[in-house]
Specification:
Belongs to the UPF0597 family. The protein is an alpha+beta fold. The protein has 17 helices and ten strands. Strand 5 (127-134) and strand 6 form a beta hairpin.
Length: 434
């Protein structure tokens, strides 16, 4: 693949669009971003606020700690944080570098102002509309389809900005239609290091730092620590523990940023941290590591293209599969090895559901990484799943397509039931962890 080829340039654009820093779980951060932007447009501290959100947004924000809020959870907390101290210019780092006095003001604002959360009156899976009011003035900011995609800004009935999203979920992003496993491998074999060193290097640095934090302190259910204590310190366990510990910290409100993949910090960590551990074990060069992580990222993005940003299908499964492919690549695996690793691993864990962002995500990540590694080890031991074995069909790209159909279409009703179960006792107000 030549650097002047359109597909080469498209793949670079996709990496730069996807591998961006985020402080905190991306769904509450998207709420905070919309709220910070709405206050900016209003030009005053709002007296009241209403958030209309899709069920999937409510699901993913319900149980996760919003960073830099002293342990607050939920949509109302994320909105209050964005209004009081958010910097909309930082987008998914809108709540980074918050001062202690601002954290106290967030709680005070939440306790003394009306913040109402209502279900969005549409069928858009990813939808956030924040309306803020002060006196006779009113402003609304709408985000659709992905976390930073502001599609509408209005003030006092006047439209200040409007973007059509008719072309689909990833409108405004580089077309992902050219992604396939063979071209991903070709790209990773030939990409110039100077073209990926910044985005991949930042992913490795940021995600390694939050993983280390997760292993040092107590966050969530401490899955990373449990794995090391229960199963030892071999590379396979370390790979699972590193990714799980990053999620432990992130779901627990750690203020360190992560580099996301497909809109998810958990996926960004799962796609990178296991490969970093294997690279240490094998004494891999920096170039080998970067190319392997690049492949893992693109394999993850490719799978998520058919699934969608939010689904009843756990995104960690896709990223664990990507990690397995990256580990295979790090070991010199060619197209056949990588293709079989992907097929084997998705066949193992494609039934894991997404029931929102919370501490158990770390355990699901551990299972997904283990499946990715097992998928590779199966091929190393002359074993594989064949066409006709469940959702597996002939050809890795065709199997990935099947998974996308299963997740986006087949699990639609599953998603509704998950949300119904989760929201039966949901209180849309700020709360603090014990």
């Amino acid at each position: 693949m030549d650097p002047n080829d359109k597909i080469y340039q498209d793949y670079l654009k996709i990496l730069k669009e996807e591998l961006i820093p985020a402080t905190g779980c991306t769904e509450p951060i998207a709420v905070a971003y919309a709220a910070a932007k709405a206050r900016e447009v209003l030009g005053a501290l709002p007296e009241q606020c209403t958030i209309a959100a899709s069920a999937n947004i409510i699901k993913n924000v319900k149980s996760v700690v919003v960073p830099n809020t002293n342990g607050l959870k939920g949509i109302a907390a994320a909105c209050a944080a964005g209004i009081v101290a958010g910097d909309a210019s930082k987008k998914l780092e809108v709540l980074a570098d918050i001062e202690e006095d601002a954290k106290a003001r967030m709680r005070t604002y939440s306790d003394t102002h009306s913040i109402t959360v209502v279900p969005a009156d549409n069928d858009i899976i990813f939808y956030i509309a924040v309306t803020v009011k002060s006196g006779a003035d009113e402003a609304t900011v709408v985000i659709e389809q992905f976390h930073t995609n502001i599609t509408s800004v209005t003030r006092n009935g006047e439209t200040l900005y409007e973007l059509s999203c008719e072309s689909g979920e990833d409108s405004g992003l580089t077309d992902r239609g050219g992604l396939n496993v063979r071209d991903i491998l070709d790209f990773c074999d030939h990409v110039r290091m100077e073209d990926i060193s910044e985005v991949i290097g930042r992913q490795i640095d940021y995600n390694s730092a939050i993983s280390e934090e997760g292993l040092k302190r107590n966050y969530g259910a401490n899955i990373g620590k449990v794995l090391l204590r229960a199963y030892g310190n071999d590379v396979r366990t370390r790979a699972r523990a590193a990714a799980a510990a990053g999620s432990d910290a992130r779901m627990g409100g750690c203020e360190k940023p992560v580099v996301i993949v497909s809109g998810s910090g958990n996926q960004g960590m799962t796609a990178s941290l296991p490969i970093i551990e294997y690279a240490k074990e094998f004494g891999a060069t920096r170039e080998q590591l970067y190319r392997a992580v690049c492949l893992s990222d693109l394999v993850t993005i490719y799978q998520k293209m058919g699934i969608g940003r939010l689904s009843a299908y756990c995104g960690a499964v896709s990223a664990g599969c990507g990690a397995g492919a990256g580990i295979a690549y790090l070991n010199g695996g060619d197209y056949d090895v990588i293709a079989h690793t992907i097929v084997n691993s998705v066949a193992i864990t494609s039934g894991i559901i997404c029931d929102g962002a919370k501490p158990s995500c770390a355990a699901k990540i551990s299972a997904a990484v283990d499946a990715g590694i097992l998928g590779y080890q199966m091929y190393q031991n002359d074993q594989q799943f064949f066409s006709g074995d469940g959702i597996v069909t002939k050809g890795v790209d065709n199997t990935i397509h099947n998974v996308g159909v299963l997740a986006k279409e087949g699990m639609r009703e599953t998603d509704r039931e998950i949300i119904k179960i989760m929201l039966e006792k949901t209180e849309p107000s700020a709360s603090v962890t014990n």
